[in-house]
Amino acid sequence: MRKDYKVYGDKVHKYYVTINADSADIAWDAAQAMTTDMWQAVPTDDVIDPYHVEEMDNN
What we know:
Layout lengths: L4 E7 L3 E2 L7 H10 L6 E2 L6 E8 L4
Antiparallel strand pairs: 1-4, 2-3
């Protein structure tokens, strides 16, 4: 018998930022402190990636 399932998914967006730093750790810390508008979008097809499924109660 067929049942209904709810499948959750996310669109994956990829961004980058160029940082001049003395080490990768310092660059990482600087990137974490940056606001969203400082990041550049990487062109992508943005597929939806399913990550969770649950059976629905049909009562």
